[in-house]
């Protein structure tokens, strides 16, 4: 997430749990204690909170969650947050969605900060308030009677508001769940409202923590055949998992950094379990790869996914691999940035006779899938050279190269391609005009490196930036914006992820384009390749995506 998104999430977390301290916030957001301290200081300077010993409290002007709703949110909180994180991935930009007033769905709403142009219908005040903070969203609170708690609206007016709507995705929790009774609620009015919402929805997602399994409450509002996908937590028993698989239900068992997705077992098809260790769940490109893989696995009908987050951390990647080796998998898809670590992981997988597909970063012994690095880089460099010719009459003062040494020689060829493409338009770039920075594959480090460089060049005004990927491009852009020097830079990215595309929509964007890697299409190609390997069919040692360079004009 960006710095702004992380700080907004801190505000939302402190609103729900006023007593959280720095170590708890750091663990919840997956960052260091120092990062949280810096964020709290910045938010305090903005007047949004006040520092306290070991933490912070919101200013009284901040809207407060009702005590009874906060108490509900704290019940089985760890399970709800795990479910919320993975369920939120089903929502994409511009979706028309219904969200109920449950504390689990409220937790999910807090994970939607990077979504844009959502059309939200809800009977939950807390949900509405959270998503209305994003001005690109349209949030409709369905009318009716406000309950005593002040957080839920129900009644005939609410039901009338839902009639005639076409909702793409509806998200519900419940107070009870069983295969026989389906999803049930304690309150009749709330159950009736959910029934109306389901009737208007194309897809229905149930967010049910394991404490509710086997319980039947007063009002049933959905049968299992109406549920597109169910999310639960890792406390669910093995017996329940087997039972759910036998009743034609797609479901996901969620952990903090891992999710096991199951499809119904059938006798007609061989069933496979595939592990996917993602690069990082905070980067839009990697998230889009994982979403595409989930869609493709569901369409295949005979693939169960075990999802994990490598967090750009070699230690975590090793821990994920250890967990995979205990999961009785048939194949592993490894997305890991460090070439040396990848080779160590491959040794463990080979000892277990597990076939491996390596995404974007090659691993010796694995089938490679992903970027045609040199070609993708060359396209971006050539386009940037054309921009410099058209806007700066072919003149420049420095070329800043944001690279990632950990990735190894093959991904490094995208940087070589960028330089060659730039030189094909501008001629040989003198070594003394090149500045090489380590982007570390994150927006934050790229921003810090680029900011320090810009501060050292106060009187240099034509800076050409080549980026290892879109995160490096975003970091360079944030540095220029922070220093008020947008006009001094022109930046090209690699990947064309959704955040970069949204920036390119803006007039005068200094990110002039990006080579599209089409992460949303990785999933179908990966599942196709994996099934060929598992069926023993011959596959080439490397399978490449096709690339297209997208410039700002394509998104205006």
Structural descriptors:
556 residues, Rossmann fold, 14-stranded mixed β-sheet, 4 domains, Arc Repressor Mutant, subunit A
Compact description:
It is built from 19 helices and 27 strands. It starts with a helix and ends in a 5-residue tail after the last strand. The protein has 556 residues and is α/β, with parallel strands linked by helices.
Layout of helices and strands, plus pairs?
Layout: H1 3-16, H2 22-29, H3 33-45, E1 49-52, E2 55-58, H4 67-74, H5 77-87, E3 96-99, H6 103-109, E4 119-122, H7 125-132, E5 138-141, E6 145-146, E7 153-154, H8 156-162, E8 167-172, E9 176-178, E10 182-185, H9 188-199, E11 201-207, E12 219-222, E13 229-233, H10 238-245, E14 251-254, E15 258-262, E16 272-278, H11 284-300, E17 303-309, H12 314-325, E18 331-334, H13 339-351, E19 356-359, E20 367-370, H14 373-392, E21 398-403, H15 409-426, E22 434-438, H16 443-456, E23 463-467, H17 470-482, E24 489-495, H18 498-504, E25 511-516, H19 522-534, E26 542-544, E27 548-551
Parallel strand pairs: 3-4, 3-8, 4-5, 8-11, 11-13, 13-14, 16-17, 16-18, 18-19, 19-20, 20-26, 21-22, 21-23, 23-24, 24-25
Antiparallel strand pairs: 1-2, 6-7, 9-10, 10-12, 14-15, 15-17, 25-27
Helix pairs in contact: 2-3, 4-6, 5-6, 6-7, 8-9, 11-19, 12-13, 14-15, 16-17
């Amino acid at each position: 997430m960006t710095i702004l998104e992380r700080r907004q999430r801190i505000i939302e977390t402190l609103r729900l749990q006023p007593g959280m301290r720095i170590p708890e916030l750091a663990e919840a957001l997956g960052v260091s204690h120092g990062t949280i301290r810096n964020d709290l200081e910045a938010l305090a300077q903005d007047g949004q909170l006040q520092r306290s010993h070991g933490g912070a409290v919101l200013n009284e002007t901040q809207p407060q969650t009702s005590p009874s709703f906060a108490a509900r949110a704290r019940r089985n909180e760890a399970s709800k947050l795990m479910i919320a994180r993975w369920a939120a991935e089903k929502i994409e930009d511009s979706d028309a969605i219904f969200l109920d007033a449950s504390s689990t769905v409220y937790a999910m709403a807090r994970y939607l900060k990077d979504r844009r142009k959502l059309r939200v219908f809800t009977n939950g005040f807390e949900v509405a308030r959270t998503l209305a903070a994003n001005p690109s969203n349209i949030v409709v609170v369905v009318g009716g009677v406000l309950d005593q708690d002040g957080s839920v609206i129900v009644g005939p007016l609410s039901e009338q508001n839902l009639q005639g709507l076409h909702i793409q995705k509806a998200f519900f929790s419940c107070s009870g769940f069983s295969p026989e009774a389906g999803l049930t609620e304690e309150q009749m009015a709330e159950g009736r409202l959910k029934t109306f919402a389901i009737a208007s929805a194309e897809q229905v997602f149930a967010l049910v923590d394991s404490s509710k399994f086997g319980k039947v409450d007063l009002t049933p509002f959905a049968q299992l055949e109406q549920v597109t996908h169910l999310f639960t937590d890792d406390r669910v028993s093995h017996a329940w998992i087997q039972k759910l698989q036998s009743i034609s239900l797609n479901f996901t068992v969620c952990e903090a950094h891992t999710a096991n997705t199951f499809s119904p077992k059938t006798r007609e098809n061989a069933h496979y379990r595939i592990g996917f260790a993602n690069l990082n769940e905070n980067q839009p490109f990697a998230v889009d790869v994982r979403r595409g893989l989930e869609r493709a696995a569901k369409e295949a009908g005979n693939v169960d996914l075990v999802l994990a987050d490598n967090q750009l951390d070699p230690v975590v990647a090793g821990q994920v691999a250890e967990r995979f080796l205990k999961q009785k998998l048939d194949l592993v898809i490894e997305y890991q940035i460090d070439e040396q670590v990848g080779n160590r992981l491959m040794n463990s997988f080979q000892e277990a006779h597990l076939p491996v597909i390596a995404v974007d970063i090659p691993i010796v012994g694995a089938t490679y899938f992903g970027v045609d690095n040199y070609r993708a880089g060359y396209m971006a460099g050539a386009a940037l050279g054309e921009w410099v010719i058209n806007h700066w009459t072919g003149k420049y003062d420095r070329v800043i190269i944001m690279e990632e040494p950990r990735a190894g020689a093959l991904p490094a060829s995208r940087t070589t391609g960028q330089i060659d493409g730039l030189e094909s338009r501008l001629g040989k770039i003198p070594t003394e005009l090149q500045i090489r920075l380590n982007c570390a594959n994150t927006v934050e480090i790229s921003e810090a490196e680029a900011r320090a460089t810009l501060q050292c060049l106060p009187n240099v005004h034509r800076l050409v930036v080549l980026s290892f990927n879109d995160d490096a491009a975003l970091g360079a852009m944030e540095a220029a914006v922070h220093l008020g020097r947008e006009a001094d830079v022109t930046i090209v990215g690699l990947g064309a992820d959704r955040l970069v595309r949204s920036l390119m929509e803006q007039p005068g964007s200094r990110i002039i384009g990006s080579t599209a890697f089409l992460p949303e299409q990785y999933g179908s190609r990966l599942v196709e390749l994996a099934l060929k390997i598992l069926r023993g069919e011959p596959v080439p040692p490397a399978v490449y995506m096709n690339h297209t360079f997208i410039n700002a004009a394509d998104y205006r």
